[in-house]
# Entry
Amino acid sequence: MMRACLGALVSHWRRNPVQLFAYLAGLALATALWSGVQAINSEARNSYDAAAATLSEGQYDQLVARSGGAIPLATYVALRRSGWMVSPMIEAEVRGVRLIGVDPLTTPVSFGVGDTGAAPELDHLFANAATARRLAGVAPVTVQETVGPNMAIGDIGLVQRLSGAAGLTRLFVLPDQPVTRPALQDVAPGLALQPSGQQADIGQLTDSFHLNLTAFGLLSFAVGLFIVHSTIGLAFEQRRGMIRTLRSIGVPLRGLVVLITAEMLFLALVGAALGVVLGYVIAALLLPDVAATLRGLYGAEVSGTLQLRAEWWLSGLALALLGTAAALAGRIWQVARMPVLASARPRAWVMATAARFRVQSAGAVALLAVAGVLFAVGDGLLAAFALLGCLLIGAALALPALAAMVLSGLQHRARGPVAMWFWADTRQQLPGLSLALMALLLAVSANIGVSTMVSSFRLTFVAFLDQRLAPELFVRVGSKNESAALRQLLDARGLEVLPLMSTSTRVAGQPVQVYGIEVGPTYRENWAFVDAGADMWDRVQAGAAAVVNEQLARRANLWVGDRVTLSPDLALPIAGVVGDYGNPLGQVVVAAPVYATLYPDDYPGQFGIRTSTPDALRRAIMDSVGLPDSAIIDQAEIKALSLGVFERTFTVTAVLNVLTLGVAGFAILMSLLTLADLRVPQLAPVWALGLTRRTLGRLELARAVALAGIVFVCALPLGLALAWVLLSRVNVAAFGWQLPMFLFPADYGWLGAYALVAAALAAAWPAWRLMRTPPARLLKVFAHER
Amino acid sequence: MLLEFQSVTKSFHDADGAIPVLRGVSFELRAGETLALTGESGSGKSTLMHIAAGLDAPDGGAVRVAGHDLTAMNDAALAAFRRTEVALVFQQFNLIPSLTVGANIALQAALAGADDPARQEMLVARLGLTEHVHKFPEALSGGQQQRVAIARALAAKPKLLLADEPTGNLDEATADQVLEQMLALVAQTGAALMVVTHSPTVAARMDRVLHLRGGLLA
Ligand SMILES: Nc1ncnc2c1ncn2[C@@H]1O[C@H](COP(=O)(O)OP(=O)(O)OP(=O)(O)O)[C@@H](O)[C@H]1O
Ligand SMILES: [Mg+2]
# Structure
């Protein structure tokens, strides 16, 4: 019996392959979108890990030998025994490549090796492909594109063996140190503490970017769920008559439910599997590094390129199956509750949707009200995400009611019978199209949100790099004499020098770094402020005011105009709050003379230098001041590298926009296609009254565009709200600083145009089919009831 | 007694309140007997048939078919009852659009556990459907579809055949033929037949005629 019944169920797909295609393709696209976004996300992550790695080296305090030579192993052991938390590092040069040996278990700096999933391999070096070629024959190299150029990372023992070096080059001072730690002079008098450079740590910045991308990945997940849901709903709608007939000739309800569930889940699995492959192919094709990507297909030995990771395809399959199960549960519940005879009755179906309409609108109002409350009083990461969720789901649920209102307004203003019929008929289509329209709403607002977030991020990031890496060279000195000698050399050359003094202390109960600077044109031109008073640099230069970073301002609840107490006798007004995207610590910046009264014994330990000939100057500094190469950092090079790496991320996220919009367009296509059969009885009377099939086809196209227009108008504020919540709420809650939000009206205009085009494309085929519907089929509507 | 209605009542509810359709219908039908049910449009004929087929439940009264008390049966039992004991030819045919004529007929037979290809072939031939076996329902005329629905119902070898206006879409000559075949086939299996009809000629061919008016039988 079950076999006969299954045969009947399956016969529907055989007779209606387009519907089967729509079902499979809907699931496949939803899964593809999700796994593609995952792939792109992690590719982006790799890219900015490379940038972060390049910048992270100077991030920690380090211990170096005063003599400039190697640190004996015994000294390291003594330090560790006494409680100093330090991690050893060794540097050497082989074939012009900088070999870096670290202790994989304790090193705070990943050098781009990052969490590759590969266990620390004791006999392997890690380097990018170009460097790996140069090291051929020296040692086995695992290619890892996130490792900076011209360097190779390995276990300390391996590097020691390869280079024959005896001692250690440097010790990283780890951030967490025991409270009771003996003074350095007592344990290792031969070592000097080199404070961390005031470089840009973009780790936090990229973490925030990643968090935002993940949020949009989830959004694409939601779009996918909508599509799965609407596909399943339509698959049921179409087989309503068959289900009724089967039950009336005695197929038991339970058996039918089991069969349908099994059938739909099986198809979902097939669709999702196709989707995983599709997502991978899309990501591979659209990502810049196609060649490297393809290698990823054939094995995991190439890390750092696109790989088909278990978590992507597993989560993709889970998405499809969970979405299918959830949608199925609702449908089966409906089928099970309806009496045998009623389940095919159009009246019951219309009433059911009217009731659902009311429930949806009530849900929308409730969710948006919660969002309002969260907006007003919410605090913290959880509240920010809850706000995001309420806003999105609430807006999606409100869409059909809103669209119905707009359409009835248009209907009342319409002149002429055709226009009136058009708007009334469009309104009648809403229940069938509402899921697809919701998907479009989410997709378009996600796109608006993504492009706002990414572009805002890009502007901020570039400005931040300009601010922090403006000086072409950055030099660290180890002693007061070196400091003075360097200053003399630079002044003699007439260069703009940005000396920097710094001390760790506590201000307003927060751990902060206090900086003494000499205000010059570089600061005035490059520093970007979250908020600043008038003439702020003049007042700072005069010693009458201080600058604090946003982290300190938010944590200590200080803002422009408040006073920050630096010592018992010194409290300066805050002239500006500076955006400091890379820093977990608070910062106070004052003019050098003020700093000197606070810390009279300190001297400038770091210098930023503006120069147009960085290489020549580097050599001059090494020769005449006697500083090691590693003390001089070429910031222009770092800046170019990180910008380049980030550009890749930005192009990659543009792909995400194309993907979501394409999927939403497909959702509309499917809804229209599957509704097409139900449409014939509705259109036949109008056709009989004298509208040509061509006109009807054109009107169908116009309807899709009109609906997409309404959706876009709703999506614009929603997308901007999304971006705002992510940049101003989620980010502040997660990282303690706000990413400024910029608006890009031209981008939004294009996006609106794309959305309309996507809707028109989606409607084109159904409209064309309608134009070609043979009159006989339209006539049949009048021949008998169904 | 094969079929027994005792004071059966049924009303439908819509926005304006309850619409009583059956107000206490009682009648009996023996195995092998044939019965015509007449009445104005909207008088509740289809409703009565649906109740007899176990598709709809009465509000009050008792319905017994082939020893089963329909009012006391749960969904699963009713489904089994529909598979094996009765067959209903719907007013709106209710063929499965994605199955061919032959497959539609075979499906119901298979569900009833009466899978007998020879008999199905015989039914197809006697109802004049041989050239349409491999067509899909949408390619058939209304009268042809109606004959498929009859063949499908008979293929299940039911004890009780219910037919809602089985000849409504047929010309007089074909209607005559179809009715002839139906009566012959029912007589062959000893099943009872109840037909809803507006046609006095059809009604005259049955053993008995019942008229439904104002929710009561006359
Ligand atoms: N599901 C339902 N909900 C509400 N009212 C219904 C429903 N089904 C039938 N009715 C009403 O019950 C009454 C009887 O309907 P029924 O279909 O039994 O009539 P009928 O005698 O078969 O008519 P016809 O000869 O036109 O087929 C009608 O007034 C109809 O409107
Ligand atoms: Mg009827």
Summary: Residues B 45-46, 91, 164 surround magnesium ion (ligand 2) (CB under 6 Å).
